[in-house]
Amino acid sequence: AQDLGLSIELLPLSRPDEDFNMSLFYADLIGLEGDEVVQYVPSAGEKLEDMTDQLRKRMMKKRKVKTLSFAITNDVCIEVNTYALIRPTAPGTITWLDSISNLPLKTERSFICNDTGALLQAPQERFQLYNDKVVKFSVRELSDVKRVSSHHLRLLGFKPLDCLKDYHNLSPSTFIYPSDESKYSEALVFSLLYIARCCVLDGLHLHFTGPQLAHGL
Questions:
Q1: Which long-range contacts (CB under 8 A, 24 or more apart) does 42-51 make?
Q2: Residue 92 covered by a domain
Q3: Which of 108, 104, 105, 141 is nearest to 122 (CA)?
Q4: 207 φ, ψ (degrees, to nearest 5)
Q5: ATP-binding: present as a keyword of the record (predicted)?
Q6: Which of 53, 86, 128, 160 makes the best surface tag, with the fewest CB within 10 Å?
Q7: Is 125 helix (H, G, I), strand (E, B) or coil?
Q8: Are residues 71 and 41 in the same domain?
Q9: What would the pLDDT profile of 88-146 be if each residue is shown by its tens digit?
């Protein structure tokens, strides 16, 4: 294995009534001698627990929920990330794989004529029955209806937490933090806005050192 550049890492699993015996076969296989066998078993158990924890963390959803864009002026726009404080976890979606290539399957929908069996193009119009009348919509009109706004959210200012009522919480609580994924420094702009607000109202000067719970907007 050393000539091929391969290494073997053994994770011994013991039964409740019997410990894993390394000296029978595996000690010679991985090159352990003397006290190294006794020291290897606890370290391997810690590695197994660490691997289990890392796997559990990868299965959990990331804390970042979404990214919001705030328009300060017509020319200045900043992005902030929302992070989940506490959120229930749900089982992941099922991914169907091809039995031969083991690749994820892609879902496709086709329209077939009932009379001739010919393949039809996707309809360019949709309809909805409303008040005994057929209302037709084009695909673009439906897209415009589903879109809440074509512009960014306009940031009007900051509110203290005592103005936030219980009925304002319509979803699991989140907090916001500036995003630095774009070419602009959102963290700097956001900090300057917040510091300016605190200087005007409270006469305080704050230094931001990392993600913190922000005041309600």
A1: 44/10, 44/11, 44/12, 45/12, 47/9, 47/11, 48/11, 48/13, 51/11
A2: yes
A3: 108
A4: -120, 125
A5: yes
A6: 86
A7: strand
A8: no
A9: 767 778 888 988 888 999 888 888 888 888 888 877 777 788 888 888 888 888 877 77
Q: Give residue for tokens 């011994």.
A: 12
Beta bridge partners of 15: 18
Domain boundary among 17, 40, 60: 60
Put simply, whether the predicted model's pTM sits higher than 0.85 gets the answer no
Asked if residue 188 and residue 94 are part of one domain, the reply reads yes
Q: Are residues 14 and 86 in the same domain?
A: no
How many CB atoms within 10 Å of residue 190? 22
DSSP assignment string, 49-99:
HHHHHHHHHHHSPPSEEEEEEEESSSS-EEEEEEEESS----PPPP--B-T
